Structures are given as structure tokens and as C-alpha cells.
Amino acid sequence: MTPNGHFACSAPWLKGQERADLSNSLEEIYIQNIGESILYLWVEKIRDVLIQKSQMTEPGPDVKKKTEEEDVECEDDLILACQPESSVKALDFDISENRTEVEELPPIDHGIPITDRRSTFQAHLAPVVCPKQVKMVLSKLYENKKIASATHNIYAYRIYCEDKQTFLQDCEDDGETAAGGRLLHLMEILNVKNVMVVVSRWYGGILLGPDRFKHINNCARNILVEKNYTNSPEESSKSLGKNKKVRKDKKRNDH
């Protein structure tokens, strides 16, 4: 940006019309956020332009990630059946010949989507007891072209190891920085175990800022509560109230 407040776009891949379109988009972001820091918003916009350009010049398979609003078709398309998947064959990962872990693909449930400013978020949940099942669930979800084309598929899982009395857990941002860690932290707070949650986000062309993390966690929390992996907020409050009452009664008895 020049001292007088103007800026110029320059890159080997920028042609006349593309440069003009990008400059107009950046200027529009500046006008909409006068007085605020816009560097991050500009970086996000340029990143989206680069992704769109790479998709047009190098068309890939259906699993290639897209950010165009047109990829988010009608809302009915996104609302996958909120019922467990029917029994399917276990996927072959060629991990080892001695397969002692559970190999069956667990049932997968799909939550109700949340839509905000043309971005849509939807959670998917599956019970898991070993890392191999985590891979199976991910592979099964990616068979769905709609899920495979999501801008981000963030996931986290927690598996309780009875023998070691510890948790085996991990997470994945899938391009949405810190989203996987936030999702895993939520699952730790809720103290859930032997379950994985995947949250798909279809970007609608409008930046949501911190709200996107709120929607990701809300999707995950809703499906965890719905599938009885944790107490509902009301039950948790009642339970907390009962515990407090018990402690008070105990103190009275001690006196």
C-alpha cells in the first residue's frame, strides 16, 4: 500500500481483468471495514481467489475442495439422513495381516445443519474404539460427494484405553486453523469417550470471523447431546445443583 492510502496488485499470474476484479474486491473489503484491521480479511480473500483459480486451471477429482457459493446447492441436499448408516462392508486399509482390532465400520449419524450468511455447517458422529475405525469413518464420509466437496472437514476423536486408564485422542483442522483443537477441547470438557465427530463446512463466500468456531462447536455439541454421549445442559445443571446440595448437607452433618 502506498503512503497516500492506495494499493496495487501485482503477480505473474494476474491478468488484466483478474487484477481489476481482485482490486475491486479488496477495495470493497476496505470500505466495509474502515478504521479496522483488514490485513487478515485481505489474505483470506486472496487465498479464496487462488483456490478458485487453481480449480479452474487444474480440474481435479470430486474430492477437491471448493469455496464457490454455487457448490452449496439447496439446503435439502445438505441435510443428510439423520439416521445410522446401514451395515456396510469394512474398508481394507492394508494396515497389517494380523488384524486384532475391531474392523467393522461403525454406524454414522448426521446432525441438523446450521446455516449462517450462506455458509453451512453439519456434524457427523460415529462411535469408535480404535484408530482404524477413525480412518474407516473418514473414508465412508468422503464417499459422499457433498461431504467430500466441503471447504473444510474438521474432526476430533477420543478413545478410552481401559488397560492404561488413559485417552487416545487427536484432531484435524483441515485448513481451518485451530478448529480441530477447539473441537477436541470441547469433547474434553464434555468428557465424552469412544466417539469421533466430523464437522463439515461449506463456505458461502462471506467471511464469518470468530462466529465460524461457534457454529462448529455448536454442531458438535448438539449431536453429542442428541446421541447421549453427554448430559444435556439442563441435566448437567441439575446434576451440578445436586452435587452442591450434597456437599452442603455433608458440611452440616460434619458440624
Question: Could you explain the architecture of this structure?
Answer:
This is Protein IMPACT isoform X5. With 255 residues, the chain is an alpha+beta fold. Among the domains are: 17-52, no CATH class; 109-227, Impact, N-terminal domain (Ribosomal Protein S5, domain 2, 2-Layer Sandwich). Helix content is 42%, strand content 15%. The protein is built from 8 helices and 6 strands, in the order αααβββααββαβαα. The chain has helices at 16-32, 39-57, 75-78, 131-142, 145-148, 179-190, 211-226, 233-254, and strands at residues 109-110, 114-116, 119-127, 152-161, 166-172, 195-202. Strands 1, 2, 3, 4, 5 and 6 form a 6-stranded antiparallel β-sheet that branches. The protein starts with 15 loop residues before the first helix and ends with a helix. Residues 58-79, 81-101 and 232-252 have low confidence and may be disordered.
Helix/strand order: HHHEEEHHEEHEHH
Structural class: alpha+beta
Radius of gyration: 23 Å
CATH superfamily of the domain at 109-227: Impact, N-terminal domain
